[in-house]
Amino acid sequence: SSGINAEWPLRPGGENFKVSYSPGGATQNTIRVAQHYLNYPGATSFVGCIGKDSFGEKLKACMKKEGINTNYLINATAPTGVCAVLLTGGNRSLVTRLDAANEYTYEHLVGAETWKMVTTAQFYYVAGFFLTVSPKSMQSVGEHAVKENKCFCMNLSAPFLSQFFKEPMQSVLPYVDILFGNEDEYRAFASNFGIASTDLNVIATKIGAMPKKNSKRSRIVIVTQGDKPTIVFREGRIKEYPIVPVPAEKIIDTNGAGDAFAGGFLSEYVKNKDIETCVSSGSHAAAMIIQVSGCTLPDRN
Q: What does pTM read for this prediction?
């Protein structure tokens, strides 16, 4: 896998290739998967920034169809962010233009309509990518979660964030009750945050013991490893959980697997299910997503 931030326009094209389009964005994918499993209108809400264009309208229509409440900040000058996923056999490369996704503002978060969505919610999830946009917004939601003893979740999202956005990550981590990530992301975190080990059990345990704002909730640290067991640190102990195996010939696109895992996990966690059930749901969601192109959810009809 590899990722590139494009400096040139990335818009519809690809006359020489078969191109398919699907709604995306790390946090948005997680919310869509969680909504799919919860399966009742308005169970989830999403806030982000889009452009005043056709892709933005498609995103709004898709989220409405899937039963997700939204309140997008619409940027009149920046186009809706896009990511081209280039698939070669079982390998993928991501070419991204963040555009409007990079323009979200704290002012929109604390506006009456958005903040009402925040205070109404009981669980919060945000991808680590948002550390590059508005860590102040993340901290504000985190402060509310601590004050009301609500659950705040974050995904490490990519190895580079621990290296190049270490300061905002340090500012947000104390609010995190559940941390998601894969083995590469956790090892990158360890190397940049003074954890002298590459052992994932050690890393998860050390992160679980880091300072935390809400002492009423112990931190849960979840490490996914592709086709290897999922590691969970919880209440001072490490435990491994089996994944749902998918034959190599059935794997179409691994893009969004981690986002899907988080969505599946949270769809059970919000119902106060045990951790084994939550991890199993996450694994089933990831197994489902890697057998289709993009974060494409099956039609319930």
A: 0.92
